[in-house]
């Protein structure tokens, strides 16, 4: 094996290897720490008493982080062929670049690769916002995020059903409230899309209090919508909770401590 | 078979047939799309910057949709006898016209069939509102809506129990708050029905903040009601979530430990 | 059997008998209807445009209802010995009078039996409020209320555990917020009991918006309390939902359709 | 056994013994009552019409309580070696002093042992606040608190997963809202940490109404965050509810279908 291939295999182990190896664990922990510090920097930068005096340092830290993330991306792109031995190197790398995690990695360095957009203040702010999405890079390392994803996936069908019900309920509630309240409060309930903001705040039970019905008909419709909606909007939590119990929990009965067999194990015919 | 009967059978297949047939799928998808676009039109029409400039186009689209829905209704009425071969054609059509989905279809074209009511502005608005209920037509095609309906139906008993408890708690809480707060806030807590609006907002935990107790007694009663009510009003979500797990989930009962066959397994005649 | 005993037995059947008998069903339905109308009268009476013009009619209806409820109470007191054949008539009636449902019946006629308290306006209002509690009389007839009671009883232990946790969390959160916010908002967070109102509104997620922290420390403490509290206060709903599933639901696997035995049934040794 | 050892054993039984013994039950109930009264004193002391006139009495009660709690702590420290017979007395006492409950006991007397800090008003208030944490001493006696702790512990994994998801969602939502609303409401959404307060109030569905989006983009982002967040933040309640059902409920695994014995049944040595 030529030295370059040995190096590539080593880099691949460092970046993708099991965290039981000490060197891989160290590299991966360092990247995770950098991600967390980076997001923290984006957050505190918006505090006037931090962004002002430490603005230059934070910009430097940001530049350094991007360099590291860019290096990481290129190293991953280079070494990913290790796990795709049967594919042509170019195909392997293209395919890797289109995996969700690789796209997240690209998104994480994208803000720094778009200097041409730095002209417009509003775009600049949106690009800065993108840096918070570096959080998603943590998903590569976090068993928790993957577990959450699996729970969502296993209940996709139920969640779609409920989501559909919520959307229908929201459209009906918004329309009803618009027709009931538009005359009494033409500013607040100016249109059905404006009423939809009321419907979201009500059906999720957030209830900021910036919009609420004042007519008897509106209150009646809102009461019905609230009572129906509370149940419907809280459903996903119940569904996901049962998914967690099924996936992570230990509800499956263990082997019998007396005979050592599981309840669902066949009786051995010879015994 | 005369051509008219062949045509009727074909129309019936198109409208009610399994969506695995390509022509039926196309027709049914087109109707669904039209429903969604129609409801979207009702919603965006209320935005001043849409309803104004595009009002005429939206009215034309509405007219065209009603024509399609009317045609659909008449074709369904004509072809429904295909699935009711043993009934007299008139009886079959009357019975079909009284099924929930046929009534929803009628409701969807009703606004356009009531031109005489177009005189009064308030009635006109109510009639327009009815058009949003075209959403319910989607129920015919949506497995999700049917699943939601089945989950509700399977837990009807529990939901009635909880609904009864919620109504009693609301009446008691409204009355208590009325007696506690009426003197301190005669405007807000003007009567028990007015307090009921507070009770709905509190027990569903929406809490807009337009009404809240200010006296010590009222706060104490409200605290008790809120704590009790949170549990009671959130119950339906828990009940429905377990219904979903039972119906859509994979908690199907395992094989019988005695004979080793599953409850839903056909008896093998030869064994 | 003397006629008076036959009459007593008949009255007992009418009032307590199974609602499958037509005469018992009619009497019991009439009492339930009267209860519902009575509570409705108390509620609508507080509306100025009902209590004013129809005040006299409502008072007459109230008087008539009390007469019926008083008669019902005395008939129950008289006939209850039918179900307590082995007890001395006086003991039997005293014991019956102390059952929860008999106390509720007494409470329902109590407002009318206290004419001496009609002098003070505030007491009078409190006595009127008592009339709403006639709702509880419905519990005698309602399978739903009994099912709710059983679900509560079966999870008493868990509910006490959670209730204890909620009380501790509320005291800790109220104290923390008092110490954090007292200086900034001496009016709103004037004492720990005053902060407790904030804690109730926050932990139940009602959030009226009449009290909220404004200092950084208060917001931090409130955020922790809110996140912890949401889980804790919503627990009872989850616990009760599982109680409902266990008690009313059909989650217990039925007999195996093949061999006719239940999964938990012993294998017959002889087979 | 020398008298001092007999006394130590007796003290140990009194303080730590099973509450089925009458003398142990009396001592333990007295300590619990003192804890509850103590916390109640801290709470009512902040009411101006209690703290003023009864301030001296409450201070005396506080001093007496601290004396009792100090004595209790020293007696526990002295007698704990009874349960640690195989350890050197000094090691045993050091180890005991580092158990969570012993630290809570120390925390409960700490406020009185810090007279030097009584100079600064703010510190003094914080020290007084510490006295509320005497509530945690109840945990030693309460089966309920231990059950709550076990339910948390058994679902630690799921709760960490969800907590991680909530933190990520909060950071993303706060950032999005900051970028959407900062220009329209520079005061309210002044920085991402300030937006985090909005995110907490929204995702827990408290919704005080002190901060809410007003721009279309902000409302859209808030609607998505609210709908996602409601499910995610309500998840812990569902998870804990299933933990309660597993731990306290009667869902114990049935007998093994192979050998017919229950998992918690002792192996009979003779069979």
Major protein interface? B-C, 54 and 56 residues
Give the beta-strand count of chain A: 0
Mean pLDDT of chain A: 80
Could you name the CATH class of the largest domain in chain A? Mainly Alpha
Distance between the termini of chain A: 55 Å
Number of continuous helical runs of chain A: 11
Number of domains of chain A: 2
In what range is the share of β-strand residues of chain A? under 5%
The CATH topology of the largest domain in chain A, please? Four Helix Bundle (Hemerythrin (Met), subunit A)
How is this fold's topology laid out?
The structure is a homotetramer of 271-residue chains.
Chain A: H1 3-16, H2 22-45, H3 48-51, H4 55-79, H5 89-97, H6 100-109, H7 121-130, H8 143-154, H9 156-181, H10 192-203, H11 216-247
Helix pairs in contact in A: 1-2, 1-4, 2-4, 4-6, 8-11, 9-10, 9-11
């Amino acid at each position: 094996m030529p030295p370059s291939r040995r190096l590539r295999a080593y880099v691949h182990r460092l970046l993708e290897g099991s965290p039981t190896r000490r060197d891989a664990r160290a590299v991966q922990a360092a990247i995770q720490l950098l991600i967390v510090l980076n997001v923290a920097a984006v957050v505190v930068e918006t505090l006037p008493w931090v962004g002002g005096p430490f603005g230059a340092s934070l910009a430097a830290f940001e530049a350094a982080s991007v360099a590291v993330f860019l290096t990481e991306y290129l190293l991953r792109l280079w070494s990913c062929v290790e796990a795709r031995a049967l594919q042509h190197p170019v195909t392997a790398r293209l395919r890797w670049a289109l995996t969700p995690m690789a796209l997240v990695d690209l998104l994480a360095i994208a803000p720094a690769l778009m200097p041409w957009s730095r002209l417009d203040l509003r775009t600049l702010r949106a690009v800065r916002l993108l840096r918070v999405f570096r959080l998603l890079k943590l998903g590569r390392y976090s068993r928790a995020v993957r577990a959450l994803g699996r729970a969502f996936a296993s209940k996709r069908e139920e969640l779609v059903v409920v989501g559909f019900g919520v959307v229908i309920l929201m459209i009906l509630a918004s329309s009803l409230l618009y027709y009931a309240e538009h005359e009494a409060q033409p500013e607040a309930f100016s249109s059905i899309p404006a009423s939809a903001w009321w419907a979201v705040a009500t059906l999720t039970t957030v209830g900021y209090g910036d919009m609420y019905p004042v007519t008897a008909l509106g209150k009646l419709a809102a009461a019905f919508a609230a009572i129906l909606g509370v149940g419907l909007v809280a459903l996903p939590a119940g569904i996901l909770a049962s998914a967690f119990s099924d996936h992570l929990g230990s509800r499956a009965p263990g082997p019998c401590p007396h005979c050592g067999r599981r309840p669902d194990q066949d009786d051995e015919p010879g015994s």
